[in-house]
Structure formats: C-alpha cells, structure tokens
What we know:
Blueprint: E1 2-7, E2 10-13, E3 18-26, E4 32-39, E5 46-51, E6 58-60, E7 68-73, E8 78-83, E9 92-100, E10 115-116, E11 120-125
Parallel strand pairs: 2-11
Antiparallel strand pairs: 1-3, 3-8, 4-5, 4-9, 5-6, 7-8, 9-10, 9-11
Amino acid sequence: xxxxxxxxxxxxxxxxxxxxxxxxxxxxxxxxxxxxxxxxxxxxxxxxxxxxxxxxxxxxxxxxxxxxxxxxxxxxxxxxxxxxxxxxxxxxxxxxxxxxxxxxxxxxxxxxxxxxxxxxxxxxxx
Length: 126
C-alpha cells in the first residue's frame, strides 16, 4: 500500500509556470510507475504525463508536449510535474497515481493505476 499527497497547485496567469509535487509514503520500497492525470469540470480524467520507475522512460499527452516535464526523485519518493507556458485549458484538478511495476514502463491509462492522491487544483486565468 502506498499513500500519495499532491501539492503545488494554485492560480496562475496564462503563460505562467507551476511545479506540482507528489510525495509517496507507505510501502515505498517497492518500485512504482507514476503518472499525472487531470480532470476538468464536466470532463473525463485524462493522462497528462507518466514516468517509469527508473525515470528512464516518459510519456506525455499531445496537449502538453514541449510545455510540461515529469521527473522523479526516488531517494525522496517524490514525483514532479513542471508546467510551463500554461493555458486556460490546463485548468483542472491534477491527480498523482502509482502502480507497482518491474517492467520500467510509463503507463498511460487510468485503469492501469492502483493508487491515487486526492488531487490539487490548478487554475489558469486568461
């Protein structure tokens, strides 16, 4: 079992930047693939970015490629999402997710994840 806590959300103007953090606790000795998802009001939860347990492999949604960067610090059991050039359409609740994994793969589907954080709100004003 692992617990995830997101932080770093807030209100930012279009063109600005935010960095989200996801701290894992609990059974952190196991290797986990991690992902960031988001859910805008009235829409389905969608993948934003994912990273394999080693950090060697990443996946990004087309809508954020070139603007967002996912990274991880396994020593601190933390995953980050650096978000630059933010747009109003990036407004959503952002969720961190984890799944135990030994294949070193950046899983991109919601159903592939077992553990979820409570989410952090990101609002981008125009």
